[in-house]
Specification:
The protein is an alpha+beta fold. The chain has 9 helices and 20 strands. A 6-stranded antiparallel beta barrel has the order 2-10-13-12-11-14.
Length: 425
């Protein structure tokens, strides 16, 4: 075999291998210059609230509703319900047996009412299941929504409406011929129980129109508008430190509830003098009540009480809302929203200064685009930046070199050697 030929072939193969290695080296480093490990987040709207949180104390004018009997009470109206003059508020009994019978009669009357409303009148146009099924679906979703929001009393009340629609569907489809037999049975039971009612009882009527509440706490004659009108910081603390009154023991009668004539009520918050500087008398504020499933109400700041020297202050708010099922616990946590800012939440590590402009790198497809930002707030590890470009509000301004950050832009939060216009492969 020709040794010279073998050497020539060997040198050729070696040259090819070296050339391929060189090409691979060059391509690898070229690609590495255009690729890097990056991660992005979406530019989304964030809300930051500045709040004053404190335990508030409710002040309002209330007077007690009395009864001669306190053995048992069967209320005719719900707590917080608006009532008229001479409206029946409750039946009171001298012993618990009368209450038990009366409560069962009320339940029977409720069932009888549901059966009566479930009946489809002869010749009624509502003889197909389409509209009934629509109502069933609507009430069902309403119940689920109320449960999810913690409004359990709303959900319970809606179940009656759902049951009526389901009963009507059974009658339309022929699954039930009618409810007259069941209704007669319930009426017979009701009459039988009514005959067993014994003992002393009384029906209590309202002497004024207003809002009736079943619960009392003994502060009705302490935390009222008369005390509020002349209140100072020191007298506020003296008022809330008082022991509640035992009204039944003092009056010799049974207290079954209270009545307030006005829908306006007040809540006073102990705050610091520094917090008081953030408030403006006459302004309205959104208040969140955590005890009431984070119910939001609009309050008006009536007065701010301060003391000198000292750091204590008291903010007095009024409210003209009485939402259904709101629990007027005399003292409860309140969060007053002082200010609210909306903007994009941008990590500080993503912010760059390019050509004198603060902004962030974003990824549009495979291209790096620098976007300007306008910082509103400096938070822990983040900036809150404005949603709109402040330059767009200025007239006769020169078009900026870089565009402004927009909703859902992909903000690059990690990457090396980034440049505007860089393309990734």
């Amino acid at each position: 075999m020709d040794t010279k030929y073998l050497k020539k072939v060997g040198l050729y193969i070696l040259s090819v291998i070296l050339a391929l290695a060189l090409i691979f080296y060059i391509v690898y480093h070229l690609m590495d210059g255009f690729t890097t490990d990056i991660s992005t987040i979406s530019a989304e709207i964030s809300t930051r609230k500045s709040v004053i949180a404190a335990d508030g104390y409710i002040f309002r004018d209330e007077h007690y509703v009395y009864s001669s009997y306190g053995g048992a009470i069967n209320y005719a109206v719900s707590s917080g319900e608006k009532v008229g003059i001479n409206q029946a508020l409750a039946d009171t009994f001298s012993d618990a047996s009368g209450y038990a019978i009366s409560s069962e009669i009320d339940e029977l009357e409720k069932k009888i009412t549901i059966l009566e409303e479930s009946t489809v009148p002869p010749g009624s146009a509502n003889t197909d299941t389409h509209s009934v099924d629509k109502n069933i679906s609507s009430f069902y979703r309403m119940i689920l929504s109320n449960v999810a929001q913690g409004k359990f009393s709303h959900a319970i009340r809606t179940t009656d409406s759902l049951l009526i629609q389901m009963n009507r569907r059974q009658m339309i489809t022929g699954e039930a011929e009618g409810y007259s037999a069941l209704r007669n049975s319930l009426e017979a039971r009701k009459n039988s129980l009514s005959a067993k009612l014994t003992g002393l009882s009384e029906t209590v009527f309202s002497d004024k129109s207003g809002y009736f509440f079943t619960g009392v706490d003994g502060y009705e004659n302490i935390l009222n508008t008369e005390a509020l009108s002349s209140m100072s910081v020191s007298s506020f603390y003296e008022l809330i430190s008082r022991a509640p009154q035992n009204v039944s023991a003092e009056s010799g009668k049974a207290v079954i509830g209270k009545l307030t004539e006005s829908y306006v009520w007040y809540i006073s918050l102990p705050i610091t003098s520094k917090q008081a500087e953030e408030l403006r008398v006459g302004n309205t504020y959104t208040a969140v009540f955590p005890y009431n499933y984070d119910t939001e109400l609009t309050l008006t700041l009536d007065r701010v009480l301060t003391e000198f020297p000292g750091t204590r202050a008291v903010a007095v708010f009024s409210c003209g809302e009485m939402p259904e099922d709101f629990v007027y616990l005399r003292s409860q946590a309140v969060e007053i929203v002082i200010s609210e800012s909306n903007g994009f939440r941008v990590p500080k590590s993503a912010v760059r200064l390019i050509d004198g402009e603060k902004g962030v790198y974003t990824l549009y497809g495979s291209t790096v685009i620098f976007k300007r930002i306008n910082i509103l707030l400096d938070m822990d590890g983040y900036y809150m930046v404005s949603l709109d470009d402040p330059l767009s509000l200025q007239e006769d301004t020169e078009k900026p070199k870089y565009s402004y950050l927009k909703l859902y832009d992909r903000i690059i939060v990690s990457g090396k050697d980034l440049e505007h216009g860089m393309v990734f492969y």
